[in-house]
Design brief:
Length: about 100
């Protein structure tokens, strides 16, 4: 979960609203947050993900082939389908891909 948090904080640094404040945002602030979040994702070149992999860290991403789950990709190319307990942050491997 550390990588996910680090990536969220990197994105947060580029945004006007911190993700930790999402639950306390007004509806208008939340709308603006998600609009900005989507703009950031649309302009993502994958450079940060490649840097993470090159540094020896796994990356996490969604894949429409696995709705409701997260794909964890390791620097060696291995991939796993994982889920997270949002309350505890515990990562659970569902299966190797």
């Amino acid at each position: 979960m550390g990588t996910v948090c680090r990536q969220a904080h990197e994105l947060e640094d580029a945004m006007d609203f911190p993700v930790e404040k999402l639950s306390s945002m007004t509806p208008e602030q939340e709308r603006q947050f998600w609009e900005q979040f989507e703009r950031e994702l649309d302009s993502d070149t994958g450079e940060a993900a490649q840097e993470h992999l090159a540094a020896g860290y796994p990356i996490y991403y969604g894949d429409p082939a696995y709705p409701g789950h997260v794909v964890k990709e390791y620097p060696d190319g291995r991939r796993q389908l994982v889920d997270f307990d949002l309350k505890t942050g515990v990562e659970t491997v569902i299966q190797d891909l």
